[in-house]
Amino acid sequence: MFKTVLFPIDQSREAREAADVVANVVQKYGSRLVLLSVVEETSAEAPSPDPMVSPEVVAKLLENAQALFLQEGIQSEVLERQGKPAFTICDVADEIGADLIVMGCRGLGLTDEGATDSVTTRVINLSPCPVLIVP
Predict the structure, then answer these.
(1) In whole angstroms, how far apart are CA 55 and each of 14, 38, 95, 109?
(2) What sign for the dihedral angle of Cα 11, 42, 125, 99?
(3) Where residue 61 falls among pLDDT bands split at 50, 70, 90?
């Protein structure tokens, strides 16, 4: 049913909590797992890049996530992309033929003000495949 699962990750607690759900889905369906980290592009006017999203930090995050899944007996592929998170997640899902995107939710879209800025809400609206949100 879910041949390819895309799991966009960041350093949030919600992403770590969603990892258990991802592991269960991948094991149940024998899915291919693709881990994705999106580094948001910075503009010339923007302040210096956040050190928490440096290429080294992102590489380590992906490496740690891959090791975590490997402990569960799950092989995974990793992708690192640069761009606007919601659009990049959906583009990658389309590119790899994902059957499911699993994401943690920070709850930022629960207010009227946050709904338009929520990466989760944008992914739900733009995704080429079903999206499973883990609260």
Answers:
(1) 21, 10, 22, 28
(2) negative
(3) very high
Domains and CATH numbers, the chain: 4-134 (3.40.50.620)
- Inter-axis angle of helices 85-96 and 119-126, nearest 10: 40
Q: Is 103 left (phi over 0), alpha (psi -120 to 50) or beta?
A: beta
**Are 77 and 35 spatial neighbours (Cβ–Cβ below 8 Å)?**
yes
pLDDT tens digits along 107-128: 654 445 555 578 999 999 999 9
In this structure, what token pair is assigned to residue 60? 């380590």
| pTM metric for this prediction | 0.87
Return the half-sphere exposure (C-beta side, CA atoms, 13 A cut-off) of residue 92. 27
Beta strands in the chain, from DSSP E residues, in sequence order? 4-8, 32-39, 76-82, 100-104, 131-134
Give the position of tokens 């569960």.
72
